């Protein structure tokens, strides 16, 4: 950790232990400089980091004070109990209907699946893209087939190495976004009619891919903070012929759950015993709010059973549609699937991203992005706690840009979605995150779109609609 991260971590531990309590004043910048033997810039960076996490607040002409902890006035959502057994999927029409309704740019994008475009370095990326186009050898446009451009795969392998995972460039397959990578992985290890395990709730794109491939899914309950239940998965593996697991272990969409290291180790060991591959959708791993990144599952995989999927779409370049999969023992099958579907991923974009990773300040961009997302999370949680009615539950994520809410009894997420759209506000209703259309009282909100006046106005309007619905007995 850097010096400012160390100071922030020490201060955060004092707050967590109750040594520093809400309302206590932190040492002035000058005093903190003397105490830690660092510059004023370092102290301010530490205080900014603590502020972005919602632990402290600045008061004009008074300094920094410990803030009353957010996220403690509302309890966590309950652990789901999905229906037992596997089932065929019929979700795409339903999901498309919901997603089509949130494309209007005039709508407050609380239901969006991406952060705000303003948070990404598009001017710099544009320059790298132009330079890559000028340098392109025309023969590469027809000769560069999967697994992808060597330099981009090398840069990705270096980032795995930094997270403690020995991933060779040769097993990395560049794809047209994470969605294609998920499809290729599923095609490599399943056949129509096979059963796969997914989390409950789960990201709807995985359900759509499974439906397209004719798969059946069994839903494994997922804790809103700690992720998929290893105990429930163990029982499912004992009873059902599960061919693969499709999970998000880092800041899962929609809950934001982060599987702790010990639970993750138990999960990998369980799958190793049953020889069941894991497809890990890990597109949010770079968007952590703390000082350290989340655990890297590939670092635990000694058997090549983990197919690790990620993308630049959520953290660097939305619209470039470049993702990848570190395929482990399944890399050759994934390459063959790629060759028979989309053939190759755009060469110029691959070269531009490789150059940006090598020279463009990717980690500086990520630090700024994490800071903005952490600030957005604090603001959204604060607004929800102040405006939503009693009975609301939320889980505070440690990264990503989604907040998962369980609404009070009597609420109807789909009806709230329709009423909110009529008022120019989008949200993602819970049923799109379930094969069985469960979570009828849950919604996902995006805090990655900073509003000029903060989220207060939109959340107050949403809360008013919810109160009206509850007063009317849960009707639309």
TrEMBL record:
The signal peptide here is none
One Pfam family this sequence matches: GntR
Coiled coil (UniProt feature): none
Keywords attached to this Swiss-Prot or TrEMBL record, sorted alphabetically, are: Aminotransferase, DNA-binding, Pyridoxal phosphate, Transcription, Transcription regulation, Transferase
Q: Which CDD domains is this protein grouped with?
A: AAT_like, WHTH_GntR
Give TM regions.
none
Asked whether the keyword Transcription regulation is assigned, the reply is yes
Q: Which InterPro entries does the record match to this protein?
A: Aminotransferase_I/II_large (IPR004839), HTH_trans_reg/aminotransferase (IPR051446), PyrdxlP-dep_Trfase (IPR015424), PyrdxlP-dep_Trfase_major (IPR015421), PyrdxlP-dep_Trfase_small (IPR015422), Tscrpt_reg_HTH_GntR (IPR000524), WH-like_DNA-bd_sf (IPR036388), WH_DNA-bd_sf (IPR036390)
Residues in HTH gntR-type domain copies: 1-69
PROSITE patterns hit by this protein: HTH_GNTR (PS50949)
One Gene Ontology MF term: pyridoxal phosphate binding
Under the heading Gene3D superfamilies, the entry gives: Aspartate Aminotransferase, domain 1 (3.90.1150.10), Type I PLP-dependent aspartate aminotransferase-like (Major domain) (3.40.640.10), Winged helix-like DNA-binding domain superfamily/Winged helix DNA-binding domain (1.10.10.10)
Lineage: superkingdom: Bacteria
Family membership, please give it. In the C-terminal section; belongs to the class-I pyridoxal-phosphate-dependent aminotransferase family.
What name does UniProt use for this protein?
A: PLP-dependent aminotransferase family protein
Q: What organism is the protein native to?
A: Pseudothauera rhizosphaerae
């Amino acid at each position: 950790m850097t010096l400012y991260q160390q100071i922030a971590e020490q201060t955060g531990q004092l707050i967590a232990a109750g040594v520093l309590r809400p309302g206590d004043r932190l040492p002035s910048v000058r005093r903190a400089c003397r105490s830690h033997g660092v510059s004023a810039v370092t102290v301010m960076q530490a205080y900014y980091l603590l502020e972005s996490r919602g632990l402290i607040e600045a008061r004009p002409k008074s300094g920094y004070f410990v803030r009353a902890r957010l996220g403690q006035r509302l309890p966590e959502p309950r652990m789901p109990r999905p229906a037992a057994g596997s089932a065929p999927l019929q979700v795409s029409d339903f999901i498309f209907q919901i997603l089509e309704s949130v494309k209007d740019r005039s709508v407050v994008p609380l239901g969006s699946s991406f952060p705000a475009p303003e948070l990404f370095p598009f001017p710099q990326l544009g320059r790298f893209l132009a330079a890559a186009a000028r340098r392109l050898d025309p023969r590469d446009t027809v000769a560069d087939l999967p697994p992808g451009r060597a330099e981009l795969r090398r840069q990705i392998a270096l980032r795995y190495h930094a997270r403690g995972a020995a991933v060779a460039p040769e097993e990395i397959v560049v794809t047209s976004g994470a969605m294609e990578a998920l499809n290729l992985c599923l095609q490599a290890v399943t056949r129509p009619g096979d059963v796969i395990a997914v989390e409950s709730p789960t990201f709807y794109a995985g359900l759509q891919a499974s439906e397209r491939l004719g798969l059946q899914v069994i839903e494994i309950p997922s804790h809103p903070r700690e992720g998929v239940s290893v105990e429930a998965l163990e029982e499912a593996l004992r009873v059902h012929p599960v061919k693969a697991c499709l999970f998000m272990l880092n800041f899962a969409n929609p809950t934001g759950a982060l599987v702790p290291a010990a639970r993750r180790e138990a999960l990998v060991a369980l799958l190793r015993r049953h020889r069941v591959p894991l497809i890990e959708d890990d597109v949010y791993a770079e968007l952590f709010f703390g000082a350290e990144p989340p655990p890297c599952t590939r670092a635990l995989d000694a058997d090549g059973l983990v197919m690790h999927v990620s993308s630049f779409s959520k953290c660097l370049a939305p619209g470039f549609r470049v993702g990848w999969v570190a395929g482990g023992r399944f890399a050759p099958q994934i390459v063959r699937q790629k060759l028979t579907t989309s053939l190759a991923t755009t060469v110029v974009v691959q070269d531009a991203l490789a150059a940006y990773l090598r020279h463009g300040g990717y980690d500086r961009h990520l630090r700024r992005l994490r800071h903005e997302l952490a600030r957005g999370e604090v603001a959204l949680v604060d607004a929800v706690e102040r405006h939503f009615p009693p009975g609301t539950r939320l889980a505070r994520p440690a990264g990503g840009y989604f907040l998962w809410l369980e609404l009070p009894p009597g609420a109807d997420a789909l009806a709230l979605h329709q009423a909110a759209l009529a008022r120019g506000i989008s949200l993602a209703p819970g049923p799109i995150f379930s094969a069985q259309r469960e979570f009828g009282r849950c919604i996902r909100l995006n805090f990655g779109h900073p509003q000029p006046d903060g989220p207060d106005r939109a959340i107050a309007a949403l809360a008013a609609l919810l109160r009206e619905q509850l007063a009317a007995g849960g009707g639309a």
